Amino acid sequence: MADHPDPKKIREVFRNVRNHREMERIIRRCSTNPADIRQTALSGVDLTSCRNVMELGCAFGSFTAALKDRLHAQARITGLDIIPEYETFFLEACDKAGYPGRFSSDGVHQIADCPPSSVDMMLCSFALYFFVDILPDIARVLKPDGRFIVITHASGNMGELIGAIRNILKAHGVLEPDDILPIEQILKAFTAENGAALLTPHFVGIRKIDFPNTLVFPPRDIGAFVDYYRFKRPLFLTGTPPAVDIVIPELTKLLAGMAARSRKISMCKDDAIFICSQPRCREKSS
């Protein structure tokens, strides 16, 4: 199994905006934690002086939309991603928030070309594990009083689904016991558990907020659970035809049995928020 998906595989997952938004709706509908994690991340943080804001790995701008009435009246928001299809939706999120916006599909690594101490705030939700290598540039580009607010998964996130997929693949000889699925490699790059250690070299102030959550799928929503896997399938599999062919029918059969026994299916969706301040001065990365 590959250690890390290439950009083509990431695009394969996320470029279908309709499916991505449907997954967000499923998560909201099935969550035991009723709070909006992005509103929780912004609550109690004074952002009224922020004029230059960036959302990294912005997708359709869910974090940006949560900024309504929180920034300086003359604020501007820039969204960076690798998927051009998100542009219209991100700019709509800027309109919803009440601030002018700009979108670039050239990816987040372009911040290496930004001047130092030029951005008031950077946001990132459920994406930093794709590009944790840019942390030095995030700290360099932020102003001395700037903030970096990042949301990420706990290490046990999707553990039930990952375990089920591993068992199916091993039973069919597609996965060796010591193999790591691409999604496991991704998630461990920046988690609730290791996030503070990764952020500490780049920020003096780090505040962590745990966001415990469970997705509960009643029997009638077994299809939604399968859709959740189907959406992220390229991050689970190597893409070999046998793996693609066997997983969905086997997973559906497994879930039907689980639902018959317990009347519901649960999956860990624990997340965490890191609010980072006082960026450490760094030279531009090479």
The CATH class designation of the largest domain is Alpha Beta
Q: Identify low-pLDDT runs.
A: 1-5
Task: Write the H/E string, N to C.
Answer: HHHEHEHEEHEHHHEEHHEE
Report the sheet-strand fraction.
15-25%
> Could you say which overall geometry the principal axes of the C-alpha atoms support?
globular
Mean pLDDT: 89
Provide a count of the helices. Answer: 11
Please state the structural category: alpha/beta
- Spatial order of the strands forming the largest sheet: 3-2-1-4-5-9-6
Largest sheet: 7 strands, mixed
Q: Which superfamily, in CATH terms, is the homologous superfamily of the largest domain?
A: Vaccinia Virus protein VP39
List keywords for this structure.
single chain, 286 residues, alpha/beta, Rossmann fold, two-stranded antiparallel ribbon, globular
Structure explained in plain terms:
The protein is of the alpha/beta class. It has two domains: 1-30 and 156-186 and 215-268, no CATH class; 33-155 and 191-213 and 270-286, Rossmann fold, CATH 3.40.50. Helices cover 39% and strands 21% of the residues. It has eleven helices and nine strands. The protein has helices spanning 7-14, 17-30, 37-42, 62-65, 87-97, 135-141, 159-171, 182-187, 195-199, 222-236, 241-262; strands spanning 52-56, 76-80, 101-104, 119-125, 142-153, 203-211, 214-217, 265-268, 271-279. Strands 3-2-1-4-5-9-6 form a seven-stranded mixed β-sheet. A two-stranded antiparallel ribbon has the order 7-8. The radius of gyration is 19 Å and the shape is globular. The protein starts with 6 loop residues before the first helix and ends in a 7-residue tail after the last strand.
